[in-house]
């Protein structure tokens, strides 16, 4: 009982009075303070994963107004204008999102629960194409729409809508071709076979009989696809052209010597420590990828050849720091993504990504030779990224075909911001549809092919609106008007906008709006609890902090009435490439509420979108290349100066905290900026980038064996001797992302350096993102105590 009371007291300080509000009239009961960290459902039933019914008469979404253990599906009926719960049986029958419509939009094809379904919108009839214990995926219509193609395991199948017949299109097999598998050399095997047949008459007779039966089967049995064997490779992807006559697949050769990390799980039912297999570390041997093309008609197979792509022999500039000059001896390793076929099947376009993260090509495929012709090449000496331009190898990003079937659209940071382009695959001509110092998100083409729809940050970097624009470009029309984030789903007839909307101090709700500029949006969910609404949660001030290098840093400011001469805290968001100084509900909702608590206690809080954050274009995104803990940390120091010079906080009472990437920045601040921050709380922190995962780290710092300078410059463990202020570190022991080993190694370093002003709190049953209410409460009790002890 004493421990539980202590937790509550520490969250609000030493006072036992049951409020933390600015005044008695707008206070939160003491019990509610605990709920800030312990029960997200206390806020309300935030609606998630909205979707339209196929007839456009119902909006479905996951919701939890009863505050039970898990969300349920609900539906809002547009005619009745009411919300009702969807039963489990009803939910099973609802067609899945992200399916494919036929050209006349009568048929809707989708995969659900590992089976393939076809829904007739005209007759309201559902056909189940597959019903197996195997998993079928990736359904699509053929060019004629008579057939449905889908994948099962390693192979493609074709279902005939007219006859109901299913035919296997590919015959990809694991292992090696038994005809070619032998421990003997070919010459030795041929000699042995010849001798054996000469000596044994019965063997000869059996061989001749078997060959005769095989010939007869080939004449009488239905078509059997030609077998291809993977050997020791893994199938990554397989697809076909719109006719099913050309197959394309990608295989992966896993490297030898690839070493997975292991995370021990100490608290288990068995009473034993049980290991969890986790990821490799950055710089581990990488897989090699090959993409193959097979023509059924000509029975020819060839490997796609990227060697002619521009820049594929170009050496990265950073290697000059290590004395390496000139062209590469061999082409850069690449991953060729699934082909995008034009509607008539005449053209195949692929997105190609270099495994060093620095190049992306949009390329057409020569179906006769397998050579790739570059249509667009985006190169970045840092790494390719930005909205709709995923850094992850398995994603093509936002791409597709224009209605004319001759132009291919994509997003590119060519101008410094992610904008919408198209390239003519026949002439190579490129067209830009949008331009400006803002970013474009999630473009789509209207069903009549006459308009673009997309979201953008044109109004403000921290605000998102939905736009409509003529298909050939021109002046876009802003359709939404509510200030915040408008996540929009068009109704099937494109007459309505389903908007998931939030502001900086109000969580997400669902709205409906006619597809007209500046039309009024009607709220259809009301999710917040009366408890949560009792407190006047602050709308942050959206500020622009001047950086020492002349840039402006967008931030959220939570200003205390006692800011003059008072304490302050800087919060550092995680992920690096993430936006948090925006005008909508933050993924860091616990931290948002904690900041309100801090302001009530006299602190001023600043939350910055430092260098490397999302939402501000290429230069801002790549500002941390080869130097994490450089400009991103300088931005925190500039935030400190802003708080002191513009807001008037006490320069000797400023703290800093954050988790994951924010924890890393906190460590760098405490180790390399002596006298700036008197206290810091580093949560689930990266302490040495050489121990983090490959895709994230190698894209920003290259591989450690190739660019050791970047890793030493960017890793807190090399600067631990600089610790002066009070440091709290918190880490989950079963974190498979930023592993517990990270904080253990840093702790040993601090011990060896004789540092005394630090403490480590460990959470034996937590991973990277905490799930237990008691862990959240304990962590933030410690953070608040740190600031109370050292900043007040």
Give the topology, please.
Elements lengths: L1 H11 L17 H9 L9 E5 L5 E6 L8 E6 L4 E4 L2 H6 L6 E2 L5 E6 L2 E6 L4 E4 L7 E6 L5 E6 L2 E6 L5 E3 L2 E3 L12 H14 L1 H20 L6 E3 L4 E7 L5 E8 L8 E4 L8 E4 L10 E8 L4 E4 L30 E3 L3 E2 L6 E7 L4 E7 L6 E8 L19 E3 L5 E6 L6 E6 L5 E3 L7 E6 L5 E6 L8 E6 L6 E2 L6 E6 L5 E8 L2 E9 L7 E2 L6 H4 L7 E6 L5 E7 L9 E5 L16 H12 L3 E5 L9 H4 L9 H17 L6 E6 L1 H12 L6 E5 L10 H8 L6 H7 L11 E7 L7 H13 L5 E6 L9 H19 L1
Parallel strand pairs: 13-14, 40-41, 40-42, 42-43, 43-44, 44-45
Antiparallel strand pairs: 1-2, 2-3, 3-4, 5-6, 6-7, 7-8, 9-10, 10-11, 11-12, 15-16, 16-19, 17-18, 19-20, 21-23, 22-23, 23-24, 24-25, 26-27, 27-28, 28-29, 30-31, 31-32, 32-33, 34-35, 35-36, 36-37, 38-39, 39-41
Helix pairs in contact: 1-2, 1-14
């Amino acid at each position: 009982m004493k421990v539980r009371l202590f937790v509550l007291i520490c969250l609000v300080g030493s006072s036992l009075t049951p409020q933390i509000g600015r005044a008695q009239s707008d206070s939160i009961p003491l019990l509610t303070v605990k709920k800030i960290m312990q029960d997200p459902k206390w806020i309300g039933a935030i609606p998630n994963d909205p979707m339209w019914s196929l007839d456009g008469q119902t909006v479905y979404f996951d919701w939890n107004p009863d505050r039970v253990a898990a969300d349920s599906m609900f539906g809002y009926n547009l005619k009745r204008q009411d919300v009702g719960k969807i039963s489990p049986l009803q939910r099973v029958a609802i067609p899945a999102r992200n399916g494919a419509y036929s050209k006349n939009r009568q048929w809707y094809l989708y995969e659900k629960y590992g089976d393939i379904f076809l829904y007739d919108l005209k007759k309201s009839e559902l056909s189940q194409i597959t019903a197996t214990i195997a998993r079928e995926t990736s359904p699509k219509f053929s060019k004629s729409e008579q057939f449905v193609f889908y994948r099962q395991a390693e192979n493609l199948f074709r279902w005939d809508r007219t006859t109901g017949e299913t035919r296997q299109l590919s015959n990809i097999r694991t292992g090696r071709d038994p005809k070619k598998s032998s421990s003997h050399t070919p010459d030795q095997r041929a000699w042995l076979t010849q001798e054996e047949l000469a000596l044994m008459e019965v063997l000869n007779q059996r061989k001749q009989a078997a060959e005769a039966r095989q010939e007869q089967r080939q004449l009488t049995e239905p078509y059997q696809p030609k077998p291809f064997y993977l050997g020791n490779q893994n199938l990554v992807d397989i697809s076909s052209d719109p006719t099913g006559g050309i197959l394309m697949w990608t295989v992966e050769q896993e490297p030898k010597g690839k070493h997975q990390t292991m995370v021990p799980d100490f608290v288990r039912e068995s009473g034993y420590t049980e290991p969890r297999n986790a990821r490799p570390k950055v710089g581990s041997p990488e897989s090699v990828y090959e993409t193959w093309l097979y023509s059924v008609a000509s029975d020819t197979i060839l490997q796609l050849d990227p060697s002619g792509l521009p820049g594929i022999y170009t050496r990265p500039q950073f290697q000059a720091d290590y004395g390496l000059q000139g062209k590469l001896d061999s082409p850069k390793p690449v991953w060729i993504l699934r082909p995008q076929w034009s509607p008539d099947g005449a053209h195949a376009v692929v997105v190609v990504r270099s495994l060093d993260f620095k190049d992306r090509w949009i390329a057409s495929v020569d179906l006769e030779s397998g050579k790739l012709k570059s249509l667009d090449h985006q190169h970045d000496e840092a790494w390719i990224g930005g909205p709709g331009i995923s850094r992850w190898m398995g994603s093509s990003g936002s791409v597709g075909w224009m209605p004319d079937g001759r132009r291919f659209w994509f997003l590119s940071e060519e101008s410094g911001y992610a904008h919408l382009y198209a390239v003519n695959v026949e002439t190579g001509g490129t067209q830009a549809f949008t331009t400006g110092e803002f970013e474009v998100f999630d473009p789509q083409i209207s069903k009549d092919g006459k308009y673009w729809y997309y979201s953008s940050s044109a109004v403000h970097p921290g605000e998102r609106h939905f736009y409509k624009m003529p298909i050939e470009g021109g002046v876009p029309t802003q359709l939404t008007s509510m200030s915040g984030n408008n996540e929009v789903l068009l109704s099937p007839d494109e007459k309505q906008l389903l908007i998931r909307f939030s502001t900086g101090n109000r969580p997400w709700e669902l709205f409906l709006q006619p597809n007209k500029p500046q039309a009024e949006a009607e709220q259809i969910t009301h999710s917040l609890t009366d408890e949560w609404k009792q407190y006047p949660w602050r709308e942050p001030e959206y500020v622009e902090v001047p950086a020492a290098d002349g840039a402006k840093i967008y931030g959220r400011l939570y200003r205390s009435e006692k800011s003059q001469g008072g304490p302050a805290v800087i919060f550092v968001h995680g992920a690096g490439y993430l936006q948090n100084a925006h005008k909508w509900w933050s993924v860091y909702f616990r931290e948002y509420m904690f900041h309100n608590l801090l302001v009530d206690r006299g602190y001023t809080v600043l939350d910055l979108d430092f260098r490397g954050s999302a939402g501000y274009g290429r230069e801002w995104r790549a500002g941390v290349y080869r130097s994490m803990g450089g400009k991103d940390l300088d931005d925190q120091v500039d935030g400190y100066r802003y708080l002191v010079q513009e807001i008037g906080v006490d320069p000797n009472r400023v703290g800093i905290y954050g988790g994951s990437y924010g924890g890393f920045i906190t460590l760098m601040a405490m180790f390399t900026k002596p006298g700036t921050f008197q206290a810091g709380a580093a949560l689930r922190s990266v302490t040495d980038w050489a121990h983090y995962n490959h895709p994230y780290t190698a894209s920003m710092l290259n591989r450690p064996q190739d660019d050791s300078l970047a890793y030493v410059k960017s890793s807190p463990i090399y600067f631990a001797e600089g610790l002066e202020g009070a440091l709290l570190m918190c880490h989950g022991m079963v974190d498979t992302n930023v592993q517990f080993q990270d904080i253990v190694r840093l702790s040993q370093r601090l011990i060896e350096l004789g540092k005394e002003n630090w403490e480590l709190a460990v959470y034996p049953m937590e991973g990277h993102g905490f799930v237990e209410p008691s862990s959240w409460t304990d962590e933030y009790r410690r953070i608040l105590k740190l600031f109370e002890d050292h900043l007040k």
